[in-house]
Structures are given as structure tokens and as C-alpha cells.
Amino acid sequence: MPLPSETSQGSYAYGEMLSAAGRTGQPRPLFGGALSAVLPHSATDVSELREIPDNQEVFANAHTDQSMIVELVEYQKEVADHEAARYHFEDIAASNKALEQGTSEVSSVVALQKQDLLLSECSSAWMLTGTQRVSKFNEEARNEVALHLGLFRLPQFSTDILVSFNDPQDINPKSSSASAMGPEEQLWTVQDFQLLLQTLRLHNPGLFV
Which is it for the CA torsion 68, 69, 75, 76, positive or negative? Predict the structure, then answer.
């Protein structure tokens, strides 16, 4: 599998995304079948548990506090392609109240090669890796969470598809997340996330109308 193109902001060892195939099933429909992708094992559809915004598909690891989100967001035409993933990272940091110095950091941003993706309609695609120190449910205790973002730019639909993988790394003992740390073999990996990015496919462009 070819490596993704490097940017001046960093590099990432892409690896073989299909190595996770033994832990995954068939692509699952998203947004009523308008999109589909291969999701990690033990992915629970959060919309079956609580109300989710119409522009999101949210999945939680049934055994850990990990989650993945596929989100339709407005295309920001004033933001250059190579800066777009960082733009959304900072927007998430603001929502997580992680804008103070030392509470968030981007370690790499890479361009994904379109020939490795099923979402051929995107003008460009990017993967960002970073960390944020966030609290859950407005608790005082903060946890260090690795935040992986995949961004697919679709200017012809005035839309970006933002895929996020929240992977807690350092859990404060006083956090409610402390009780949600499952066994290592149940953890989702970056390879699971990369497989989702590679297999994301558009079936119905009417989704963006």
C-alpha cells in the first residue's frame, strides 16, 4: 500500500489498512445508505441510545470509551485544503474547552492519496493526528485523548466529510471514563480508523441537497 503524501506539517506511517480486515465485517450503511464504510468491531450505533444530530453518525466501542464520528460539515471555501483539517481540529478544541496552552497539540497532517480511497468524488483528503486534554460531561477531571481526523473535501457539494476517532490515552482516576477502560484486545486501533477512511464510499449524492 503506498504511503500518503507528506506535508510540511508532519508525516505518518500509513501502513497496510487492510491488515484489520480480519476484525471487521462488511461495509455498514451510513445516513440511510447514502454513504457506507467498514466500521471497527464492537461498533455500537449511538443513535439507538440517544438522539444524534442529523448531520452525524456516531459509533461507540461497546467495551471502551473510544468513539468514531462521521459528520457532514459546511465546506469552508476560505480555508486552504492543507489547513482545513487543522481548522476543524481547532473547532473541536473550542467545543472541548481545550484552547488553553498545553491542552491541545497537532502532531501531523498528511494528504491521503486518492487512488487509495473509495470516495473518488473528493477534491482532496487529509488525515490529522493530535491530542487534546478534555473533560467528560463538564467534569473538572481532564483526560488526554488522541484525536485522529479524516477530512474529505467536496466543494462541488459545498460539504466536507469529517471523520473523527476519539482514543483516550491518559485517564484521570476521578473521571467517569476511568470505569470504561476495556481489555486491550477490545481496543480500536489507528488501522481500524484508516480502514474506515479508505472504505468510505458515496452512493447517493442527494445526501448533500
Answer: negative
Q: What are phi and psi of 69, to 5 degrees?
A: -130, 130
In this predicted structure, the answer to whether residue 164 has a pLDDT above a threshold of 70 is: yes
Give φ, ψ of 145 to 5 degrees: -120, 125
Dist CA 4 CA 14 (whole Å): 7
- Burial class, 164, CB count within 10 angstroms (exposed 0-12 / middle 13-18 / buried 19+): buried
Q: Across 32-41, 92-101, 175-184, which has the greatest mean pLDDT?
A: 32-41
Consecutive H or E run containing 40: none
The amino acid at 151 = L
Q: Grid coordinates standing for 72? A: 457532514
d(CA 59, CA 79): 28
Nearest to 207 by CA among 36, 34, 29: 34
At residue 8, the 3 state secondary structure works out as coil
CB-CB contact of 127 with 30 (8 Å): no
Q: Where are the alpha helices (DSSP H) in the chain?
A: 81-95, 190-199
Report the percentage of the chain scoring pLDDT > 90: 61
Task: Please state, in angstroms and rounded to a whole number, the distance separating the CA atoms of residues 155 and 175.
Answer: 40
Rounded CA-CA distance 46/135 in Å is 20
**Tens-digit pLDDT profile for residues 60-102:** 998 888 999 999 999 999 999 999 999 999 998 888 665 566 6
